[in-house]
Specification:
This protein is α/β, with parallel strands linked by helices. It is 46% helix and 14% strand. It starts with a helix and ends with a helix.
Amino acid sequence: MSSVFQRRDMYDSVVVDREQDVVLTTGQLYGLQVRREVDRSFKPVIPFAPHLFGSGKTRFVKSYLELLKSMGERALIGPENISDYEKDRRRSFLDKLHEAVLLYVDMRHLEPTDPKEKSLKWAVHYLLFKSACLQSGFEEEPSPVECYNVLQLRTTVLVKRIREVLNMRTDQFLLVAFDEVGVLDTRGKFFDLEVNDEGRVRPYNDFFGILWGLCLEDNVFFIVVGKSEGLSIHNYAASVSRVELTFIPLSPLEKDSIIEHLEKSSSSMFTGSPKVSQILCHQHFATNELAELLLELTGGVPGLLVKAINYLLHCKLSQDHLLLSKESFWMIMNDSIATNYCVDPLLPRLSSLSKTRQRLLKMLTLLALYRIRFELDELVHLSSTSDVFLFDLVTDMCFYRRLIVDENHQERYEVLIPKLLIRYIEQSVKNDRLEWLLLQTLKSQPVEFFYESKCRVFEGLVATMFYLHFCYHPTDSLMFSTLGQLSSIWNEMNLKFSSESTAYYMKSIHYTRSTSEVERDTFGINDWKEIVEEMLEFEKIYIPFEPTSRSPDILFKLHGRTSGQNLIVGIACKGRWSSNGIRWNEIVDEACKFLQPVHDQVVTVHPTLHCMLIIMSTKLSTSVATDLNHSSHCYSFGDRVAGHFLIPRNCELIILSESDVENFIGKDILSSLRSAFKSTDNPHSRSIGISTVQEMVLSLSKNI
């Protein structure tokens, strides 16, 4: 089984959704050509993809020219307003680039080479020439000594010989793709490298210095990819080796792209070489359903996606009668054989997290869980003397990045932790209860949340804090004590969860709902009976998927300690980050959309059921705060709120004071969030502050 299973050619994988990367790469290659024509003392630009396994680096560089041709002029001539002269110039460049020859160079074959064993420059030159020979079909590798006698470390001679081997014209573009450049991390020690002013050697600086010399040759271009500390290399190379590196994003694939991949890729392992979608899908299991499941499992990471599809095809080949469904998909892919196969290249790293990396893991999990974006050059302090770029830390921790370009063309990144990896991370941090709970919450979070939702740090913090209080310290909770003083029904509830679980994400509530045959994405506003009776389970906290749904931001159900009374609790997290606090009409609106329908649809038929809405706002308007005497307040049955809303029977509305909210969340954390959210719904970690994210970790840890 394993010999067939380990095959990588179960299907011909088609590269999709790389238009953005093609445009960026082509623009940089064009920039190099322009600089070379204008000034011979130019700084070369080189597209650079320092990403983790599975990002699609190798497939991208190998298929770049094919992708380029399929895009036509869009690869270099976009909607921007440029002159006709410039358009003609770009068309001419594209025409030549379409005729380019791609030389693929695998840096894993880099090694000390006779007769200059300690020379990195000679090792790179020889590897270039050897790769050209092998690509042209030479049966034997060329002799290093004979090559050195001819080439003599002269770039002009090297490029000329490579052109001859590849049967190229002198004016034809040569595009060299260096893959697995990360080997320099370990193999740099085999060479005599330049020592900087600090007494350190940086092999990447030497390497890009070699490429700088090669870029001086006409019609030669480079793309460099491979797992590495990309931003550190980027910054140092720019300052020392006279090379400008530009990142190729290679973001994970979204659902539509996965559908395209399934429908375009085919497998010769099956009779007639059908498309993958035809092999794995059928009348009762559509392609979009399979795409959703693959997205949920892999996060859209191309390498993980391809491995998962390979495994499914293997199962289908060995069990022709197999009909996939949502249930059978998870049964197959949750098996350890499947998951080990999919994440095999990452297993050594995932299973050996150092204490420092374990400490940083919680911070990265919060960034992923709460949708906090980060900027390219943000630093994380490891110690008083050591920093690391967050961009590089994500790669080092075996996670992935997604590039986000906002409406102001600002580029930021989000952390993606594919669900395939979570079980292995859990094994490394099995004694860390907070990390386990955060990972479990992330595991229950729909992947669509990652691609569609705004930052939910405030709601997420409140939900996590409530959950931790229920699990560990219900009797010591100042918030629970405050709620008990305000509400008698709260005191009658069992506030201790019997077991650790997680926060769960539920369908949102809207005015209308889909009536098609496919599963509904939302509940309707008349579905509260179904929500309360079937959706909300005891001892679980739920967060509606969309923050704009017709429901509170957090929902949970508590049962009484001795009586048969139960309590449905909704928490409306009203982040008010400017000078304007929440007004009475907004509070009434929250009560109308939750208390009234729950009362009418559920409480009236369940007399032992009570309903409570908690307004947790970071800032109250002056009129609200004054009317409440700057204290928390509870409105019970028969009370009128703002002279308009009448509290229904068995219902309560609690408005927490600003000071009680501040004590619950933490003054410093709330202050940082207030600054971060002033101008955007999607703040990044720099505006929140990495130190604040770490403070969140400490605050949550105190509750365990």
